[in-house]
Amino acid sequence: MNGHTLHSIGELARRTGITVKTIRFYSDNGLIPPADRSPAGYRLYDSGAVARLDLVRTLRDLGLDLTVVRKVMDRELALSDAAAAQAEALEAQIRILRMRRAVLSAVAKRGATLEETNVMHRLAKLSEAERRRLIDEFLEAAFGDVGSGPMSAGIMRSMTPELPDDPDVEQVQAWVELAELSQDPEFRAHVRQLAEEQMAGHPQGEPPTFQHDLAAIVRDQIAPAVARGIEPDSPRADRVVSALMSRCAPLTELRDDTGPCDGTDPRTRLLSRLERMNDPRREQYSSLLAVINGWPGPESLRPVLDWSVHALRARMGS
Questions:
Q1: In sequence order, which ranges of the chain are alpha helices (DSSP H)?
Q2: Under a CB-based contact definition with an 8 Å cutoff, are residues 143 and 192 in contact?
Q3: pLDDT band at 255 (very low <50, low <70, confident <90, very high)
Q4: What letter does residue 17 receive in the DSSP assignment?
Q5: Of 7-11, 22-26, 141-145, which range is least confident?
Q6: In Å, what is the CA distance from 131 to each residue of 111, 150, 156, 162, 237?
């Protein structure tokens, strides 16, 4: 071989740290062709085989299959193209593994049954189009034919999850929980009632304003009392409750779709609305939505709603 040093397969294995069996496999597949044969017929390799073996090992470690590696080695395929294709394939695998990890973590956290595990797995595997259809169905059930115009459309947009193309485990888990919650008939009915009440308190044709947002009014009126440590059933709370009733009067006295308000006490009507607003599922949906969409965590209304409900009950003798 014109003075070039040739190496047996055993010597090549010692120099590269790759087993004889693996080198023979690569050689049989045309990746590391021998430079010559010994008189006894054993394969002999030149010094270039060492560099070629290192490259094969690198490409295999990166996940490229033998066919692609051979094409790259033989310059039938550009390494950049092979790398791009492999990166895309790995992204798909990562998404699948992330989904599996999220479902398994949720199963472990909940102590889920086999049936619940099956539901979570199905929800996590939905495509973007399938996720959109599921949420659109929920929003239609909750808001369909309830008001119109920018206010209704804005509420629906604000309740729409947008799972990113590359979600993390927490976002996948939040999506599964939100999807399950959206399929709950009781929750759908609850959201619809809240929407109907909000629309009934918002005059048609007018843009949404602070004075028509019951949640904002309660937060504005009650948060200072909560911060000062005023007990809701104490005499000090009387003025706070009176101010709250005054601010909420336009919302509790407006007509709704079924006709004029009945003759029940305004405090009873307000208490009923606040109790519905204080359903933990409403806040759960908002928190899950924030995780999925990458929004800041929503401010909890639980302290001011709890205070308001307690204060109204105390003044109604219940």
A1: 9-16, 20-28, 48-61, 66-73, 79-110, 114-124, 128-143, 150-158, 169-182, 185-200, 214-228, 238-253, 266-277, 280-293, 302-314
A2: yes
A3: very low
A4: -
A5: 141-145
A6: 25, 24, 15, 9, 46
- Cα(309)–Cα(18) distance, rounded to whole angstroms? 73
Task: Say if residue 303's pLDDT is above 80.
Answer: yes
Give the list of residues 6+ apart from residue 47 with CB closer than 8 angstroms, or none.
4, 5, 7
CB 233 within 8 A of CB 310: yes
Contact 24, 9 (CB under 8 A): yes
Write the pLDDT tens digit of every residue in 174-221: 999 999 999 999 999 999 998 888 777 555 545 444 445 899 999 999
**CA–CA separation, 171 and 159 (whole Å):** 16
CATH of domain 7-77: 1.10.1660.10
30 burial via Cβ count (<10 Å: 0-12, 13-18, 19+)? exposed
Q: Are the C-beta atoms of residues 169 and 98 closer than 8 Å to each other?
A: yes
Q: What is the dihedral of CA 181, 186, 191, 195, to 10 degrees?
A: 160
Look-up of token digits 């927490």: 170
Q: 205 Cβ partners below 8 Å, 6+ apart? A: 149
Average per-residue pLDDT in the chain?
86
111-129 confidence digits (pLDDT tens): 888 988 898 888 888 888 9
Question: Is the backbone of residue 161 left (phi > 0), alpha (psi -120 to 50) or beta?
Answer: beta
* CA-atom Rg of the chain in angstroms: 33
Domain ranges of the chain: 7-77, 160-166+185-314
Q: Which two tokens stand for residue 151?
A: 């206010």
pLDDT over 90 at 311, yes or no: yes
How remote is the C-alpha of 98 from its chain's centroid? 12
pLDDT tens readout for residues 68-79: 999 998 889 999
CB 170 within 8 A of CB 227: no
